[in-house]
Structure formats: structure tokens, C-alpha cells
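#lab-general

N.A. 3:47 PM
ok so I finally got the sequence cleaned up, no stray characters, all 326 residues accounted for. can someone with queue access submit it? mine expired

B.Y. 3:52 PM
send it over

N.A. 3:53 PM
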Amino acid sequence: MDNNTEIAVSIVCITYNQKKYVGKMLESLINQNTNFKYEILIHDDASYDGTQDIILEYENKYPEKIKAILQKENQYSKGINPNITYNYPRVKGKYVAYCEGDDYWNDPNKLQMQFDAMEQNLDCSVCVHMTQCVSKIGDKLDRLFPPISLKEEYITMEQYIKLEFCDAGWMFQTSSYFIRKNVIRKYVNEYDNKYPVGDLPLMLFSLMNGNCYYIPRIMSCYRVDSGGAMSSLKNPEKRIKFYSDMVRGHKNFDKFSNYLYHDMFEYIILDCEIEILLSKNKYKDICKNKYKKNRRKMSVKRKLFICLGSIFPELACYLKKIIKSC
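B.Y. 4:20 PM
back already:
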């Protein structure tokens, strides 16, 4: 743990124009019950809504825990990854935990439970847990991560990819990630991320360096549609670009992992292509034989919508505007 053995866990946070939520996030991090010391490393990317004032208030109140970098110019717009460039180099802990500005932890024992799990399971590189989805105002939604029921158990790379890409979809939310620092260091030095997101490749890379320990307990909350990057995918052009970039990321990681999981990467790439075709209203193309396996796992509602679109494309386009779930 370098020369700072008193710090066991470093929590990294990135914020941007999240004045409504950042106070609750910080309170949830400060109020953890642990038998070890931890630090909170915040990078604010030039917020102009008062987020920085709230962060400063908390940093002045808890200077022994909170260490903030408050930018005057937005770094993300310059192509700079705030965690890699500003937060990771400051990490003093043996482990790294995560929480973005609009999310929060709802269990004061989260850090201790994950720390104990990793200390007892040395073959694990990452620990995750259940996450509750909430609305912008904090109401519970009928959605959890993971979207399927799992027992407390080890998850291998192969099991995770199958669940993530082929069976269940988005498995774990970033606010549940708890990763060994040496894995983070390897990630920064060895992997060039081509994905438009950071959480998926971080999990994939971690699982290339050990197993995942899963705790079936809700210990964090993910705020849906709070203005983050995923909210912008309702725009067709942005959706097309996102899934095109995801294809590029999948192909790159498939190569990086020496094609050990090639069939599953091929499957998720076809899924991304379907999303692109849907955004372009090319319904007949989705009916091609190459997407047959992917179509089998679609909901009946989506299958019917694609069938309708292949026959009456104008009607499907109209319905898509008024039915969000298509």
C-alpha cells in the first residue's frame, strides 16, 4: 500500500453539475462504519451550477477524508479521463471504490463488508453487490442490478461475459465496484479503452486478473435519467454513435483477451448492430438470418414491433415516437 499504509480504501468520485445530488452522495460516503481509514478523492469537471461550493463545504468539514480537485476548465471535453488522469494517481488505498455524483450508498456497512470479502478471498480482483435504481427525486424503481437473482458466490470471467452479453444484460452498476489497486494500476498501464463507457472494460479487465465476489445485498443506489450520458441515448444520432463505438470497444477487447470469449463477443456485437438498425428504422435488415440467434432472446413485444416495421415501416416509426420501450 505504498507509504500510506493507514489508508485502506480510496473512494473515487467524478462530478459535473450535480448540485441537487452531490450532498447526499458525500453524506453516504462519510457515514461508513469501518475499522480502517479511507479517503474520498473527488474530481469535479468545472461545474457551474454550485456543485463545487457544496464539495468545498464538505472538504472543509472533513479535511482528513475528502480531497477535491475542482477544475476551472472542463477536462472531459478535451478527451481527458478524470479518473485515469487525476484520481487514480492519488490513490493511497489497497482497494478502490466508486461513486458518481448523482448516485449514493444506502448501507453504512458497504465498505467494511466488501473489504472483508476481498481480504478473505485473495483470488478475487473485484467485489460487487446489488444496486437499487431510483428516480431523479429518489423514489425506488422496479429495477435492480443485477437484473437476475444470484446467490453469494464467485463469478468467473466466462460466467460474467455470458451473463452480461448473452443472458441478462447490464449486470452490475459502478457504485458497487470494489477493486484491488494493483488491478487498477495494470488497467491504466496495459489497456487502451476503446469503449464509449468506462465501467464495462474496467469490469472485464478486472476479471482477466481474478474472480469476482458477489454480495446479494442492496448497498448503493443508481439514479436513472438524472442527466447523465446514458440519458442522451434517446436521440437517434447519439444512439447510433454510441452503439457503433460499443462495437469498436467489443472488437478491441475481444482481441485484447486473445479471442478466448470470441463467440460471446460476436453475439453482443450483433446485438449492437440491431440497436443501430432500429435507430435507422431498417427493420427488414434485422430479419436477416445473421441475427436469428439474437432475435430468439428478444421480448415478444420487440419481435412484433420489428415484424410490423418490416411490413409497415412508416407506422413503426410513428409508434416508436410515442412508445419509449420499442
